[in-house]
Specification:
- The structure is a single chain.
- The protein has 212 residues and is α+β, with helices and mostly antiparallel strands.
- It folds into two domains: 81 residues; 101 residues, Carboxypeptidase-like, regulatory domain (Immunoglobulin-like, Sandwich), CATH 2.60.40.
- Helices cover 43% and strands 26% of the residues.
- It is built from four helices and eight strands; from the N terminus they run ααββββββββαα.
- The strands form two sheets. It has a five-stranded antiparallel sheet, with helices on one face.
- A hairpin with a 2-residue loop joins strand 2 and strand 3.
- The longest helix has 44 residues.
């Protein structure tokens, strides 16, 4: 995913993403639509503003005040893990991470839900496993994703926590898809406008023959 939004703000982000995509598609498909340029300008400003707004609610935080960092060392070509923190004294999954290649670095804010510790969950051979990382301020923590560094989820708590996160994960995928749709529509809108300009300024057949 390009980004992942916090659970509380995600429904509002999805609504705004959908509105921007619909309005942009209207300016592409409806040739006689009044105020087309005004609507297009509105969607463009809205897209930029929404992008800046997303930075405030992205998980993990974009601008951590008390930064700490983990370095994930992959044991496969691709791995998927979930980050679980503590929110109101309850475990809460808040990020889905794909690790491509040998390693990946990720920054966290100790003032968020990982102030005590971070749980990294991973599915191994159909079962959930996890390991706990004690985070310290301004320090790089090396985390190895090899199976022998994980312990099994004997109580089922990790499985339930990730199950509760599925809706948020799906919502974030949907928001990312809508963002990509808008960007694709924006490119199509620019291409259409350029083609219209080319056709408008293209000399007629007679003029091309006479040189006028």
């Amino acid at each position: 995913m390009i980004y992942q939004i916090a659970e509380k703000i995600l429904p509002f982000i999805l609504i705004l993403d959908l509105i921007l995509v619909v309005l942009l598609l209207l300016t592409i498909r409806r040739k006689q639509l009044k105020y087309k340029r005004l609507i297009f300008s509105f969607t463009l400003v809205g897209f930029i503003g929404l992008g800046l707004f997303k930075l405030l609610f992205i998980e993990p935080h974009s601008f951590p005040s008390t930064p700490t960092e983990i370095r994930l060392l992959n044991d496969k070509s691709i791995s998927k893990v979930y980050y679980i923190g503590t929110f109101e004294n309850q475990p809460r999954a808040f990020w889905t991470e794909f690790i491509l290649g040998e390693k990946k670095d990720r920054m966290f804010d100790l003032e968020s839900s990982v102030h005590d510790s971070l749980i990294i969950a991973k599915k191994i051979k159909g079962n959930w496993y996890n390991q706990t990382v004690r985070l310290e301020f301004d320090k790089i923590h090396v985390v190895r994703l090899a199976e022998n560094n994980f312990r099994p989820d004997l109580t089922g708590q990790i499985r339930q926590t990730i199950k509760a996160y599925r809706f948020v994960e799906f919502g974030n995928y949907l928001s990312n898809i809508l963002t990509l749709l808008y960007m694709g529509g924006l490119i199509l809108r620019i291409i259409n406008y350029w083609l219209q300009q080319q056709n408008t300024h293209k000399p007629g057949f007679g003029a091309s023959l006479t040189g006028k």
